[in-house]
Amino acid sequence: MRPEPLAVPSRALAIGAHPDDVEFGAGGTLAGWAAAGCEVSIIVVTDGSKGTWDPSVAPADLAASRAGEQKEAAAALGATGEVVVLDHVDGELEYTMALREEMCLWIRRLQPEVVLSHDPWRRYMLHPDHRAAGWGVVDGVVAARDHLFFPNQGLDKHRPSSVLLWSPDQADHWEDISPWFEAKLAALRCHSSQSQSSMSGTDAEAFEARMREWATEQGHPVGLPLAESFHRIAP
Q1: CA distance linking residue 130 with residue 127, whole number of Å
Q2: Hey, which residues does 164 pair with through a beta bridge?
Q3: Residues 219, 225: contact at Cβ < 8 Å?
Q4: Predicted TM-score of the model (pTM)
Q5: Per-residue model confidence as pLDDT tens digits over 55-92
Q6: 160, 167, 209, 196: which is closest to 21 by C-alpha?
Q7: Do the beta carbons of residue 133 and residue 165 sit within 8 Å?
Q8: Where are the beta strands (DSSP E) in the chain?
Q9: CA distances to 46, 65, 131 from 49, in Å
């Protein structure tokens, strides 16, 4: 039996550790929601300054390039909300109370119905930034919903209706991205600085084949041809 998709939210906030994480994890879902009128906002927690295998590229130059690529990718998805790259250094993100407060602030400020991010419970997730960002987001959701957390922010509390965690340890929610797969690809291709790293140096056809295979694998357990899988939490 095919799963029921989530009702299109009026506002969605996707938070990734690095530029391109959001597109890999939830690009198809966000493109579909944006086309249906959802205000999609994207926050990138680190500056992406270590995301290269080219020793000739200076970290500051790479960070500037990746910030521009992220804005292009958001436009390719149809995102009309905020696109923000925070100033945490790539590869050095730590889970702290300050990070929790920062995530809480953005959730309260943007008031999304759905928050999407990394699954911090995923076993053997290697990248420390992904783990730290995921914990910051899920704990930030808890803080954002309760007024006694961080009252110094001067913002109303806000409780999203759902949290969707991509690349989940245990998937229990799926979104059909068949109509939006090309938009996901287009957004990922905007991250041209990553052609030798996250895209593994493959040509356009090989990269598309790899992404199609991944989307097929995610959808297979529930009979969807191309899907993104998540673990869903109701805060």
Answers
A1: 6
A2: 116, 232
A3: yes
A4: 0.96
A5: 888 999 999 999 999 999 999 999 999 999 999 999 99
A6: 167
A7: no
A8: 11-16, 39-46, 83-88, 114-118, 162-166, 173-176, 227-233
A9: 8, 9, 18
